[in-house]
Amino acid sequence: MEATTQSRRTVNGERVDLLERDTEFARLVRSAEGGRPLDRLWASALKLQRGPWQPSSAPADTRLGYLVLDGLLGRRVVVPERGRSLELLGRGDLFSPWQEDSPSFSNIAWTVIEPTWIAALDENFLSQIRQFPELLEALTERALRRSRRIAVSAAIANTVGVEERLLLLLWQLTELWGRKAQGGAMLPYRLSHQTLADLVGARRPTVTLALRGLTDRGLLQRGSGGEWILTGSPP
Fold first, then answer.
1. Alpha-carbon Rg of the chain, whole angstroms?
2. CA 175 to chain centre
3. Contacts for 101 with CB less than 8 Å, ≥ 6 apart
4. What sign does the CA torsion over 103, 46, 41, 57 have?
5. Element (H or E) spanning 125, and its range?
6. Nearest to residue 214, comparing CAs of 203, 195, 225, 228?
């Protein structure tokens, strides 16, 4: 039932210009050798609303998967009765939800944490960038960047103390998708205590206490819209 409801809330088939939505793509096209013209880079986009998301079967021509244009997705891995983890995917991330090689004893579930736009990198997209190997190189680099980020997340999860893990995690996410603010930086996403608990490998009540401790230490604030505001400099 959840999958059916989510598919009804998904807007399919809208075309977007990736040169307008992705500044790195636009920069690479402008700086390409030979001045080859590419005024638009069209892709079919999907808009996903908050809640569980069950990806449909892989489209026949979506070879490279999806590119996140905006918003926030969660990929949760659950080992029943043992443990769970959560990976966040945001602006600029490349992913193929149909290609899973997780162990047989684990389950994968997708959640839309913030309203999200994703673009399908299909045959039409590939035909437009054939003369721009720079764009394919950029996509490869993004895939590698995501794997390196997972390694950093694993190191954070092994840091002693939930307060320290939360502080490192929030700074990591803010450097990825946040922006500078007066006296520090801001992460514009409304991450719940349970989401943060899944990200740092702790129980929700423990995370609630740790967040209170960071607030008392003057290192963290919650904005009026639910955003997280970090003060000072990265640890």
1. 19
2. 13
3. none
4. positive
5. helix 123-128
6. 228
Q: What is the pLDDT along the chain (235 residues), one digit of tens a residue?
A: 333 344 334 445 688 999 999 988 888 888 776 556 788 899 989 999 999 998 876 665 666 889 999 999 999 988 888 888 899 999 999 998 887 777 777 888 999 999 999 999 988 888 888 888 888 899 999 989 998 999 999 999 899 999 999 999 999 999 999 999 888 999 999 999 999 999 999 999 999 999 999 999 999 999 989 999 999 888 8
Show the tokens assigned to 207.
């995370």
| Residue 2: burial class (beta carbons within 10 Å; 0-12, 13-18, 19+) | exposed
Residue type present at position 136: L
Question: 165's torsion region: left (phi>0), alpha (psi -120 to 50) or beta?
Answer: alpha
Report how far residue 127's alpha carbon sits from residue 132's, in angstroms, rounded to the nearest whole number: 10
Its pTM stands at 0.86
Compute how many other C-beta atoms are within 10 angstroms of the C-beta atom of residue 34.
6
